[in-house]
Amino acid sequence: MDYLIIQQVIADQRIMVSRRYRGTERLIDSDKHLRSEQISVISGIRRSGKSTLLLQMADKLPDFHFITFDDERLINFQISDFNSLLTELNKHHHSKTILMDEVQNIDGWERFVRRLHDEQYKVFISGSNSKLLSSELATHLTGRYIKTELFPFSFAEYLKFRRIDSSDKSSAGLGLISAAFDYYLMNGGFPEYLKSNDPEFLQRIYEDVIYRDLIVRFGIKNILGFKNLVQYLFTNFTKETNYNMLAGILGFSSTTSVRDYVSYLSDSYMVFELYRYDYSLKKQYQSNKKIYVIDNGLRNAVSFRTGQDSGRLLENLVFIELRRRGIECWFYKTKNNLEVDFLWFGSEPELIQVCYDLSDQVTLKREIRALQTAMTELSVRSSLILSYNERREIADSMGVIRIIPITEWLTDK
After folding, report:
1. Among the four residues 61, 261, 279, 350, which has the most C-beta atoms within 10 Å?
2. Which residues pair with 332 in a beta bridge?
3. Residue 313 is assigned to a structural domain of this protein
4. Shared-domain flag, residues 275 and 352
5. What are the CB-based long-range contacts (under 8 Å, 24+) for 309-312?
6. Do 198 and 277 sit in the same domain of this protein?
7. d(CA 253, CA 359)
């Protein structure tokens, strides 16, 4: 690659870094990355704030180099150019800390990162594709890295962005938190969208991921079928489905294509598959799955909507928060086919049911019956229902079910 272009990119990006607004500080454990000598990996969907997070970390370091490969001038950059890049970076000042944003755009990047690590550099890298990063990290950087998945703002981060005190339990404070949640439930947490409130921003994220990250990268030929699948999944999120069902509804001749397309979407953090819990892994893989999407605002901006979908939006929000907290979970079906939304295993099994409105007694009894049955089958003594604004406790010989407002759970440190 032309050495003069590399010089120009470095100079321009150095100015950009000095001027760029650092945004709202994210509520993640940055210290584990700053203290560690391992390679630090930040992955997540486009525009979730990875570059900003890298700079927030960089500001806590004595010196650093920063380079983003999401720059059209580096489109011809190859692995052989990394050494020229390193030479040019160190020409102005020498630093043993390098932050590289969207590094997965360069084929062979992991070999250069490994060399830097072997030469005692502290390396931070980010990327928008979970499988690409994970497979290359596992192959070439095993045991040399720590990783954090970055999502759009959590509700706690959104309150921080809005300068609302989550610990204020006065009537006025609770009113602000409730109003903020109503907005967050519908509009999600993409930082730049929250600043601009421009729906076209969410459309652009969607188009960039679909076309640049997926259709082009994976050479998808059936573009219309792929787009129809994405639209269907976004519209019917939180519902049970399977590859055969999707192939039949959308007219695919092969379930293999559907499986591959859903895998691509998962790799790019657009959608997530939730498996039904079973002691048999084979049955888990063969059973129906539920689909969740990365962000409620993005979903509402691009899907076909027939109503407010408040209950499904709330369930989706809870799933993403569980992922954000690093919790691997499943949905659970009792022996008499009652469903509990989320199950995971800590010191003991944990059960969560999500229900926006519990004012209807039929709905309340259904949710309680499902939890009580699951608690008996799994030998659990307590469980949780997350609702919009209700609080109560239901106790009997089977155990205790706590009902709490969703905002309390989301801001629980």
Report:
1. 261
2. 340
3. no
4. no
5. 310/185, 310/356, 310/357, 310/388, 311/354, 311/355, 311/356, 311/357, 312/237, 312/238
6. yes
7. 45
- Domain housing 343: 330-410
Of 123, 150, 177, the last residue of a domain is 150
Q: What tokens appear for 105 in the block?
A: 């755009």
Q: What angle do CA 412, 128, 106 make, to 5 degrees?
A: 150
User: Based on the domain organization, do 220 and 294 belong to the same domain?
Assistant: yes
> Does 260 reside within a domain?
yes
Looking at residue 25, the DSSP 8-state letter turns out to be P
Amino acid letter, 316: N
Name every residue whose Cβ is closer than 8 Å to that of residue 365 and which is 6 or more positions away in sequence.
none
What mean pLDDT is predicted for residues 213-236?
A: 95
Shared domain for 302 and 358, answered yes or no, is no
Those residues with Cβ within 8 angstroms of residue 127's Cβ, 6 or more apart along the chain or in another chain? 41, 42, 43, 50, 102, 103, 104, 133
Residues 100 and 71 in one domain: yes
**Token digits of residue 155:** 């509700």
**pTM of the model as a whole:** 0.94
**Residue 318 is assigned to a structural domain of this protein:** no
Q: How far apart are the first and last CA of the chain?
A: 48
Q: At residue 78, what is the residue type?
A: Q
